User: Fold MarR family transcriptional regulator from Falsiroseomonas oleicola.
Amino acid sequence: MPIARRQPRDRAGLSDAAAPPDMSPLDQKLGFRLRLAQQTAFEAFHRLMSPLGLTPGRMGVLLLLEANPDIRQTALAEALRIKPSNLTVLLAALEAEGLLRRAEDAGNRRANLLRLTAAGRALLTRAKAAEAEVERQLTESLTPAERAALIAALARVAAG
Assistant:
């Protein structure tokens, strides 16, 4: 969908201050469109998930811990493409809230294994309903085939 275009300049070379800017240089820029889509996604996410105390990063961690009990902290950082030091801060907050527990890996005493607690599983159960609504809002203008194609295309872009 094209972005609003600026009105032509008057003879003095000045544009109408109330007219929207000419966005045509960005119309077909993938990076720009991805940023706008991310902003839209984050706004919808925060509107529905902030009452639960969840951010996109926290939700991603909880979902992966549910799917991968006893995952190593380093594997989680790699999967989420989060710097290990940033993940450590996030995990410490989740642990302090009683949502996850860390255990020393018996096979590698320097590694931590991560697992959701009962409280973490309970929060995630509540969050999944809100997350489903976020997903519905984000894709309500897409057919199921368009949604699947978009996800596949974004996965290829993200893979580099």
